[in-house]
Structures are given as C-alpha cells and as structure tokens.
Amino acid sequence: MFKKARRNNGSVVAGGIILLALTVLSSGSALAAEIVGRVTVQHTGLFTQGKAMEVPGGISVSITPLAGQAMPAPHPRSHRVTIHNKSFTPVFMTVQRGDELQFISHDTVFHKLFSLSKVQPFTLDLGKVEDDGQAVTSDLFTLTQSGPWHVFCRIHSTMYFRVDVVETPYYTMIKDGGEFHFSGLAPGRWQLRVAAIGSEPLLLTAEAITAPPPMQVVLPVKSGRAQVDASQMTPGMGMAEAGAGEGEGQLK
Prior knowledge:
The structure is a single chain. The protein is 14% helix and 41% strand. By secondary structure, it is mainly beta. It has one domain: Immunoglobulin-like. Strands 3, 4, 6, 9 and 10 form a 5-stranded mixed beta sheet that branches. A 5-stranded mixed beta sheet has the order 5-12-11-7-8, with no helix packed on it. The radius of gyration is 24 Å and the shape is globular. The protein starts with a helix and ends with a strand.
C-alpha cells in the first residue's frame, strides 16, 4: 500500500513538473514575437528628388498594440536638449508621453522658445550665458499629450526642434536605411509609426510573429524645407501647413 501511494505521489509530482514546464514554455512563446524592418527615405523636394541626402535628426520608429496586447508600465524619463550657436541638439527626438524635457543653452544670446502645435502650446524664455560661462537651464517640462511638437525661437527664426511624443515604450531612432527590431512582443497586430523632419507620421499595420520577414518601409520626405521661418507660423499650425510636406509612405 505504501509503495503504491508513493508511485501515485511520484506521478502527481512528475505531472506537476510537466505542467509547469509547459506553462513556462507557453508564456515564453507568447512574448517571443518580433517586428523587424528597414526604413528608406524618399526625398521629394524640388531640387533634391532622387539625390542622397542626410535626414536631420534621423528617423523615429515606434509601435503600439492594435489587438489589446499588454505593454510595460510607463517609467517617466528626463530628456535634455542643448542649444549651441543657435542650434538644437538633437534636432529631433522621440519620447514617451509623461516624460520630461529640459532645455540647456550655451549661447551668449537670449532665446524665446515657443510651440504653436495643436498638441500642447508653450512658451519659454531662456537667458544668455554670462561671463562665468555657466549654461542656462530651464525647468523640467512634462510632455502630457501625444503627437508631434514643433519648437521655434521668436528671436532666431532659423532655429527649429521637433519632439514626437508617443504612447508606447517601444520606440527607437534610426538613420536613413537603418534597421529597427522590436522583440519580446505579444503576437498580433501592431501599429507601426514612422516619422522624420520634413514628413508627417506614416502609420502602417505590422504583424508581430516569431521570426518575421523584415518590413521594407519607404518614407517620403520633402527635403530642403525642414527649417521653417517662425514668422510664418500661426497658432495651431503644424509643419505640414507651414510647407514641410505630408508623408504618404508605402511598403516595398
């Protein structure tokens, strides 16, 4: 009787181990999906069509779920943008909604930054660097609304900075012709968002699967129009209305 009970207990233990192993494998495979691809810029400017040109600031690529897939909880981060010789560095970035932005000026002139984007307009006065050479730092500014932000200076009309605020932690910045790779995803349909200075965001549907074929994305960019004179901007106007062009991307 004791031996029989022992064998039964062993079967139960063995069965439990097998079930646990299957559960672990199943949960692991559920997050083994990927989305991979490459983005190529198609220049559409009047004098730049077909020419090889660098996209200022690079290309923003991000994904958000379309089928109710769970995403990691947001962990707000702080991002810094420096100003030197009346230029922003970086000139383009992507952040998650809820992140903070801070401007640091190394210029010996004043700046009056502003954004008239529909997303969340703001104004910011930055003093000039004094004789001690200490940089002027703004307060941290929380980005509470998703969408593209276009930032200008009222004093220096050639200054321009763009930040795209997305609703996902899955984002990256790549160069023209560069590859993107999002791994550890729940399978299903995701929305792929691709954007660059001189283009409107391009939205495509991507399928997250195990070992997917690479996507080939073409992003039209109207080159030579990235720097828009701030004096031409009106409240609520975005880059498309100001002449930066509207992207109509495609898959190859």
